[in-house]
Amino acid sequence: MSDAQDPAWVRWSLTLAAMAVVGVLIVIPVAQVFVGALGNGLGAYWDNLFADADTRHSIRLTLTVVPLALGANLVFGVAAAWTIARFRFPGRTVLTALIDLPFSVSPVVAGLMFVLIFGLQGYLGPFLRRDGYAVMPYLFSLLGAGLFAGVFVLFRPTRPRPRGSLWNHPGLVGLLGSVAVFAILFFAQQYFEVWPRDQSLKILFATPGLVLATAFVTFPFVARELIPVMEAIGDDEEMAAVSLGANGWQMFWRVTVPNIKWGLAYGIILCNARAMGEFGAVYVVSGHIAGQTDTMPLRVEKLFQEYNLPGSFAVASLLTLLAILTLIVKTGLETRSPTEGPHVD
Amino acid sequence: MSIEVRNVTKTFGSFLAVHDVSVTVPTGELVALLGPSGSGKTSLLRIIAGLERADRGQVFFEGEDATVREARDRGVGFVFQHYALFRHLTVFENVAFGLRVRPRSARPAEAEVRRKVLELLELVQLDWLADRHPAALSGGQRQRVALARALAVEPRVLLLDEPFGSLDAKVRQELRRWLRRLHDTIKVTSVFVTHDQEEALEVADRVVVMNHGRVEQIGTPQEVFDRPATPFVMNFLGHVNIFHGRVESGKALLGPIAMDYPEHPGEQSLPAAGYARPHELEVGRSADADGGLWATLRHVHAAGALVKLELVDDEGHLLQVDVTRQHHEEMQPRHGERLYVRPRTLRVFVHPWRVGA
Prior knowledge:
The complex is a heterodimer of chains A (345) and B (357). Chain A is mainly alpha-helical and 345 residues long. Chain A is flat. Chain A starts with a helix and ends in a 9-residue tail after the last helix. Chain A has 17 helices and no strands. Chain A folds into three domains: 38 residues, no CATH class; 220 residues, Orthogonal Bundle (MetI-like fold); 72 residues, no CATH class. Chain B is an alpha+beta fold and 357 residues long. In chain B, the strands form four sheets. Chain B has a six-stranded mixed sheet, with helices on both faces. A five-stranded antiparallel sheet of chain B has the order 13-12-11-14-20, with no helix packed on it. Chain B has a five-stranded antiparallel sheet with strand order 15-19-16-17-18. In chain B, helix 2 runs parallel beside helix 4. Chain B is elongated and about 80 Å long. At the A-B interface, helix 13 and helix 14 of A face strand 6 and helix 4 of B.
């Protein structure tokens, strides 16, 4: 429509301006990364990436941290979106706003928060590091109780079993189960040293801290994508599934997931892209130990500081490649996903 | 299977949706919950289904307390107002859903599922659409798929929320006759919610009229139409003419109309109103009988089985009178003509909040 209204020179100059901006700000720098990385030939590029043990480790660490953070955010994101889209409760708007907090807070500040919580001078740090791995029985029994609650909600049988089935007393089973887990692990730790006694659970300056920081920073992606989708679809189909006899898992897996799968895929991709590139928060909690807690972005920075430009560019090019791949998948999804709900054959 | 709702109350925040409602639905009946929007009829239906939890009160299926059971265990077929078909599944898979989610021990074999689903699709006359997705169906077809899907689990009770609400008038007419015939075939105890009195009166065995979360009247369509228990029911089930006035000493004085009212022999004067449907008024050119009033003819709507006359009395109140076409042709009333209007029957309701005051 604007074709007819705007004179040709306006269209051409605007297009050229946009092209120029994109070229100068995006295309040239990205190309430069690859030029810098490949400047000394393919062999040198390969060596830069895989000959250095610390660089190899950083790649492996990123490939460990990102899936873990992604998995955590998938579970929490779906749970948060479900809560906000399906339930009405006091504090719902506050919760909705809080989900966005990781976006608005500087990643460095996010990292500092974790230092404050888990550092030796922090709130939880001393407790977590007390007496070697003494905290593990607590952690595992809590985790077990949570897991049991989840399983109960999702898979509970349709009607109470006639004879004293365990399903009839979920609270009791959960309590006794977690007490039993605690007792077993406690004795295992005391007498069999399942976890080494002279070490302690490290969160800061170790992989758990990296996962936590990455998960925090990328938390909003999945939930943000899902809330509008779930609100638009409504809970009618889920109610219908329940009235037809589906249990929680069947309802979720057969009805909810197919309806939200595009939003979910989109959220995961964005989350993944952001998680791989995360620098600020990870920088603070990692302690920057080469060969132990350096992820790829941290490695890029360190190599750069050491004047190892080809090495730095090589790792950077790998990150860039992953980003471009993400972009391609995202674009593919956008063209494939139906613009409005149902797919008509 | 019979349904008994006993003293059910439900509030949403400060809004009282259902207030101490008790209803019994005998086995095999088709019952309508009729009321304006916000009258609590849908909430009540969802409480029966277990999709909503009552604050107080119980629901019994065949004498057994169903309140403790969850929706998926109540054996209820629920047809949602906007059908709630699974948009990513074909018609066939929609209907098969309830069979496929059964616990493994009770799940029928694939061949059995197929047979049953096709049988149901035949029942709702949609077997030729089994491979389509819901988005490719018309409203009436979606409605019938939703019904087949609900019937697939062999429900003990069928609940329908505004089953014809979002269909156009013609489809609606056909579908409600079809539903009535279907019910006569399968005989499953059914409750449907509607705000359309015509629909309720035509389809249902019995009608539960609700207003502001309370039951106003329960009865057969004829009972609620001919002997409305409250002014609300009278008003809701069709057009009415209202004559305001008082009752005292065995007389009702309603504007220009005076009549005997033996139900209130006391001398105390109470506000009251007389209600008459348009077909219960007669018009003439002379005041040859008592208990009528003069009014001016404003409009004549002659398109229809009955001729509708609109008159205005001397105090400016509008009167609606239905006369037969034959009567209209014999009488030939003219615009602006003064006519004598007389109620053949008049139901007097003494304002309830003053009773016993």
